[in-house]
Amino acid sequence: MMNLNQTKLVGLTMELDLKAREYKRLCAKLEELEQNNINPNDEKLLELKQLFQKNHNEIVEINRQIKEVKEEEEVKEKQKEEQYNPENLFKKNNRNRIEKNKEENTNKSIAKVKENIFKKIINKIKQILFKK
After folding, report:
1. Is the Cβ–Cβ distance between 26 and 48 less than 8 Å?
2. 92 sits in which H/E element
3. Partner of 105 at 20 to 30 A CA spacing, among 6, 12, 76, 123?
4. What average pLDDT does this structure show over 74-79?
5. What CA–CA distance (Å, rounded) separates 60 from 125?
């Protein structure tokens, strides 16, 4: 079963093959005109030149589209490799553990600071009450 990019690639390749066949047909017409010793400024030759140019532009566009599809596929493959790379998975797990440990440590230290402040306040109240 082919994915969307593979289907696009096959379609573009088929179009490119058709354009190559059209190019060969235009070349055959040009050779035929050369054999007839046609005038270089003849209208038929100018039309043929325009057809060659149109064919060339279409081939360039198809090649550009093929390149885009291939680059898109490569990007997707790289993303999959990065996502499912075992080394990265373990690194992510370690990073998550380290971050959680940091958060827990800061929460504990904040709690200890709060306890110490409350203990100090309570101790001062006790000192004041017991002195009297």
Report:
1. yes
2. helix 86-131
3. 123
4. 88
5. 87
